[in-house]
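So, is this right?
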Amino acid sequence: MKLCFLVEEHYRHDGMPNEVIRQLQSWGHQVDVLRPGGSLLRMTEAVRAGSHDAWVLKTVSGGPGLTLLEAAASAGLTTVNDARSIRRVRDKALAAAIGRSRGLPVPPTYAAARPELLAELPASEYPLVVKPADGSSGRAVHLVASPDRMAAMAPELAREGLLIAQPYVANSGIDLKVYCVDGEFYATERCSPLHPELGVRERRVPLPAEVAAIAGQVGAVYGLDLYGVDVLLGPDGPVVVDVNDFPSFRQVPDAVARVARAVLGLAGGGRAPVPAPVHVPATAGESA
């Protein structure tokens, strides 16, 4: 197969997707790499029907790679994931609205173009988690305790563009990250960006059946094939706080080969019907 990977400068030296690219090449596939953040692109020529079997995106949320992927999709080319699905989750305000309307356990979410608009929220909604609508990798995620603190942070938040705010869900300070690769689910736990003082090392853990079902529902709601879901275990049950279209797949066993095989499958046949979640349990050593 002939594949095109769109890789931003931010991921230029990351194992994901570079190791996947090398794996595909070792299997005899041709992989071209475009770096939309560091190249002058002739958009009218970059996307040509039949030039590649599939296009794969690994970029930051606000980067130009998604525009190029959408151009490929508009030309009728296969993209991994579907370009429209990526757009749905890259905009966290849009993702929250879609998810909550489709029955996912997503917190109530407010959006504001300017931080001073968040002053309209009553004190009863605090503490609030505030972050950029186009954020990624835990960037600029803030736990804001009170309206006074929100006012004090306004100059800092003003640099982040569209903001979302969600009432804080009480939890242990440990996030559950669920990765979906080719219909199989893998769970890891890691320290929340809001609670770095806990110093929890990321590790694979058993995946609760309720969370596995939610992770499968996420794929169906947004139309994703390769993705990750951030889940908090709150007092009223699991809560979805973020969805990523091409995550790191850290702690997934044999992740490089699994992701490479999934890319080939999607490139060859397009999107498969949404499978029932298959939870791959952690071994005793991995969950210890």
Observations:
- Confidence is low (pLDDT under 50) at residues 270-277.
- DSSP finds nine helices and 14 strands in the chain.
- The longest strand covers residues 174-181.
- The CA atoms of residues 36 and 64 lie 6 Å apart.
